[in-house]
Amino acid sequence: MRRGTRIGCRAVAALAVSAVLASPATGPARAGPMQDLAFTQHPGAPLPLDARFTDTAGRTLPLGAFIDGHPAILTIGYYDCPNLCGLEREDLLHALSAGGLKTPADYALIVVSIDPAETVALARQARQDDLARHATAGAERGWHFLVGEAGAIRRLADAVGFHARYDPALKQYLHPMGLVFATPGGVVSGYVLGVGYRPGDVRQALAHAAVGQSVAASPVLLLCFHYDATTGRYTLAVEKLLRLGAVMTVLAVGSLLGMAHWRRGR
Q1: Rounded to an integer, what distance in angstroms lies between the CA atom of residue 254 and that of residue 63?
Q2: Omega prior to 104 cis, within 30 of 0
Q3: Helix ranges (DSSP H) in 19-68
Q4: What's the rounded Cα separation, in Å, for the pair 206 and 183?
Q5: 146: nearest Cα among 76, 249, 248
Q6: What's the CA gap between 121 and 143, in Å, rounded?
Q7: Which of 7, 120, 144, 255 is most enclosed, with most CB atoms within 10 A?
Q8: Domains and CATH numbers, the chain
Q9: Helix (H, G, I), strand (E, B) or coil at 249
Q10: At what angle do helices 85-98 and 199-210 cross, to 10 degrees?
Q11: Of 30-44, 165-179, 180-194, which range is least confident?
């Protein structure tokens, strides 16, 4: 991820958790409003455990073999991503570490590329980079960075309500940001959407998944969109979040000043 992107993304990470920009879509992705790319939450839906994916060791196995009877965290995105995908994993891994969660005892991490053109080599490099920043005991058994064919990716995306649309001009898929949690039996348990994940939220979602509870999340739409290196501008949802953050800051400062004035008057 480019340095400029990371700095800008971190500025909006906390806002992404609470900013409700759109309701979940009710149908498949299509050419139209960006709101159509929001997750359609499917708590209680079964994952396609027979769909086959290839891991960083070159093994092609059913999805169920990677879950292997553990509560699972699923994230879908890019490995060679210039935008938010790396930030999503960075925030998740930080939350897992800060929350004291262990793998594979507490969770299995399953990262899946949305792009069938991405290779095992890219997945392997992303995994190595993440481990270099977040050395984690048990990752050899609990962290699975996967690639797959288009059919397998589509089955998984449909099961969890993940919508994406390929933009020929940008030469990338536009897609939402968020985590999907699954039970040890491979059933969708819940979602944590946006970025800027808090350790308590991740721990709670895993606790629900471990006992088979299904919980819907508040709708949040943050897209992994493009960063324009020419203009130095972020587009679409990120800009909206930055504007929302500015408004929220002004309101918060105004409220504090008003309270201080009221207390001084008393």
Answers
A1: 51
A2: yes
A3: 63-67
A4: 8
A5: 76
A6: 16
A7: 144
A8: 3-265 (3.40.30.10)
A9: helix
A10: 80
A11: 30-44
Q: Give the length of the chain.
A: 266
| pLDDT, tens digit (0-9, with 9 covering 90-100), for 61-82 | 999 999 999 999 999 998 987 6
For 5, the token pair is 């992107």
Backbone torsion region of residue 58, taken as left when φ is above 0, otherwise alpha when ψ lies between -120 and 50, otherwise beta: left
CA dist 257 and 232 (Å) reads 34
Cα–Cα distances (Å) from 144 to 3, 33, 57, 215, 222, in that order, read 26, 33, 10, 24, 24
Sign of CA dihedral 18, 20, 21, 24: positive
Total-model pTM: 0.72
Dig out the tokens for 117 from the structure. Answer: 């053109």
Question: CB neighbours of 54 closer than 8 A, spacing ≥ 6?
Answer: 60, 120, 146, 147, 148
Lowest-confidence segment of 12-16, 110-114, 160-164, 216-220 by average pLDDT: 12-16
Tokens coding 167: 């933009």
Strands 143-146 and 108-113, sheet pairing: parallel
Which residues are within 8 A (CB) of 50 and not within 5 positions of it... i.e. 6 or more apart? 62, 63, 64
CA atoms lying within 13 Å on the CB side of residue 266: 5
> Angle, to 10 degrees, between the axis of helix 120-133 and the axis of helix 85-98?
40
pLDDT digit string, tens, across residues 5-51:
333 333 333 333 333 333 333 333 333 456 678 889 999 999 999 99
